[in-house]
Amino acid sequence: MKSLIPWYTIGLVVAWYSSNIGVLLLNKYLLTNYGFKYPVFLTMCHMSMCSVLSFVAIACMKVVPVQHIASKTQFVKIAGLSVVFCFSVVCGNVSLRYIPVSFNQAIGATTPFFTAVFAYVMSKRRESWVTYVTLIPVVAGVIVATGGEPSFHLLGFIVCVSATAGRAFKSVLQEILLSSEEEKLNSMNLLLYMAPIAIVFLLPATLLMEDNVFEITVDLSRRDSKMVWYLLFNSSLAYFVNLTNFLVTKHTSALTLQGIKFEALKTLVKGNAHASGHKHVLGNAKGAVAVVISILIFKNPVSFIGMAGYGLTVVGVVIYSEAKKRFR
Fold this sequence. Notes:
- This protein is mainly α.
- The protein has one domain.
- It contains 14 helices and 2 strands; from the N terminus they run αααααααααααββααα.
- It has helices at 4-33, 39-60, 72-98, 101-108, 111-123, 129-133, 135-147, 154-177, 187-209, 213-223, 226-251, 263-270, 281-298, 304-326, and strands at residues 256-257, 260-261.
- The protein has a two-stranded antiparallel ribbon with strand order 1-2.
- It is globular, with a radius of gyration of 20 Å.
- It is a multi-pass membrane protein.
- It comes from Quercus lobata (Valley oak).
- It is found in: Membrane.
- Pfam families: TPT (PF03151).
- InterPro entries: EmrE-like, Sugar_P_trans_dom, TPT_transporter.
């Protein structure tokens, strides 16, 4: 049985990669190539499916034990996190309308920079000076990538930076708001409560910002039946991104293979948990794979300077991750 465990874990990592990259590329396809220019409604579809599948997985299939909200105060905190979460996801989807996946991923790799800034401003949490120095190539890489991006779009850039900052802000805020043992929720239970709250905010935003989107979606579905399947599959993938991330983190926490500990994989995977706020090598490899696949599929123009900038950012994030471990 032990020999089967690592293969199960590898399968989970592959599923995590596939769902992450799949939802990113399908979002890009729907919002640009397919012409479905409604990122807020698309996000609401994601949250609706997350609500349904979270309930099925936790209440019916017992994937994880149910964790109940303990108080009104905790509910308010979760609602606040949900608003920030909505903001970051919507901004991320909006950015895909205007900029290619490769540039989107380059900007997204700067999450550690924003996390460090918010951690210091909001909780006065300081890192060593060496750790802060390693953030220089992270930011410099995006500056270089921006200068060399053939498909640069100012609005897309601003919105993507906002999405990245929103993800970092959410991770720091979550640490602060749900810090006590009584209020801590695992990522799956947190999603169970956050997703329905997100819909409450996204529905009026959709009606106000995207006129007649429901009628347009129905009309598109009548003319092209694949539209319904695209939305259902895309929304399901959005849930499986969260599920596989949770399962990968859980199943790599204490595994061994032929006497060799999975500490490296454990560290890499945990770097992608929202609570830590930064990505390690595994997450950046995922981003690199997404970039390569997106270029092959969408044929967006790239430049050597742009790719060099993205590479510099990834290297900076890896160095930053190592510095955090060594200079705590």
